[in-house]
Amino acid sequence: MRTLIAIPVFNGYDALERCLSALASTEIRSQARVLIVNDASPDVRIAPRLDSFAISMGKSKPERDALPVQVRHNATNRGFTWNVNQAIGARQPGEHLLLLNSDTIVTDFWLDEMLATIETDPKIGTVTPFSNNATICSLPDFSREWPVPTQPERERLAKALASSRAAAIDIPTAVGFCMLIASSCIERIGKFDTENFPRGYGEENDFCMRARGAGFRNVLCPNAYVAHEGGQSFSDEKRALMEAGGRRLLALYPNYNDLVADWIARDPAKARRDEIATRLDAR
Q1: CATH number of 137's domain
Q2: Bridge partners of 180?
Q3: How many Å apart are CA 221 and CA 89, to the nearest integer?
C-alpha cells in the first residue's frame, strides 16, 4: 500500500536542508510520495529550496524508483494542525499517512520497517520509530533529549535495529516528530482537532487518544530509527502554547498523565533498548 509522506515546514532552513538531504540519499523499497507544505515561511530561502528539491527528486532516479515530491506554499501561516489536515485531505483512497517533522533525519529503510510493523495487526493505528529525541521512544533511554548521532552512528543504529526485528511495543501515544497513521485509522477517526489545538502542541496526543478509544493501538516500531533535532530552547510563546495544549489535553482526557506514567514505570521498551545496546557494544 502506498504512503503519503507529509512534511510541514516553517523556517528552520539549516535543519530542513539536513532533512531533505537524508530523504534524497536514503533507501526505501515501499511505494511513497511526498507532500511538503510551506506554511508561509518568512525565510526567503525556503520556498525556492523546496521547489528545487521537488525538481531534483524527479530527475534523480529512474521513474520506477522515483519518490515524487509535491510542494504547496500557503499564502498565510495556518499552523501545524491545519497543515496536517491539509495532508489528510490530500491522501488518495487507502493511502497511509506519514507525518515527518522538517528537523528529522531519516535512515535507510526507515519507512519500510514502519510499514512492516503497521501491517502486522489491522488494529495498529499509529507507529513511531526509535529516535535520539522522542520522549518515550528515545534511544538509548528517555531520561533526556540525546544529541543527534553522527551519520556513521545513525547507520549502525539502523542496521542493528533492522537486523534483529522485534514485535511492536504498545505506547500510550505516538510521538509526532515521525508518526505513521494507518489509512483505516484516519478513515475511522478523521482529522486532527484544530479547534482545541489550532497551533499544535497536543494535537497528535489527542488523535491517539481518540484512536485508542476506538480500539486502535499506538505502537513503537522497534526496528526503525529516525533522528530528531528538536527544539533546544523554547520561546515564551511556544512555552505558553505547550502549557495551553497540555491543559486542553487533560480536560479532554483526565487519565492521560496516568497512562503515560504507568507506561514509564513499566518501561516495556527497556528489553529492546538493552538488546540493541548490547549488539552495538559487541560490534
Answers
A1: 3.90.550.10
A2: 98, 127
A3: 26
What is residue 133's DSSP assignment?
A: S
Task: Find residue 37's DSSP bridge partners.
Answer: 8, 72
- The two beta strands, 96-100 and 178-181, are antiparallel
Rounded Cα–Cα distance for residues 263 and 222 (Å): 16
Q: Which of 57, 107, 116 lies closest to 228 in space, CA to CA?
A: 107
**Cα distance between residue 120 and residue 116, in whole Å:** 7
C-alpha distance from residue 183 to each of 64, 105, 202, 216 (Å): 24, 24, 21, 12
Q: DSSP letters along 253-269, please?
A: -TTHHHHHHHHHHH-TT
* This model's pTM is above 0.90: yes
Tell me the C-alpha distance between 273 and 279, whole Å.
10
pLDDT classification of 232: cutoffs 50, 70, 90? very low
Give 100-127 pLDDT, tens digit per residue: 999 999 999 999 999 999 999 999 999 9
DSSP 8-state class, residue 78: -
Number of domains in the chain: 1
Mean confidence (pLDDT) of the chain: 93
Query: 2 is written with which cell numbers?
Result: 502506498
What is d(CA 245, CA 4) in angstroms, rounded to the nearest whole number? 27
- Direct distance between the N- and C-terminal alpha carbons of the chain, in angstroms, rounded to an integer: 35
pLDDT score of 233 more than 50: no
- Peptide bond preceding 172: is omega within 30 degrees of 0, i.e. cis? no
For 190-234, the three-class secondary structure string (H helix, E strand, C coil) is CCCCCCCCCCCCCHHHHHHHHHHHCCCEEEEEEEEEEEECCCCCC
Say how far apart CA 136 and CA 86 lie, in whole Å.
Answer: 28
Task: Give the cell for residue 49.
Answer: 529550496
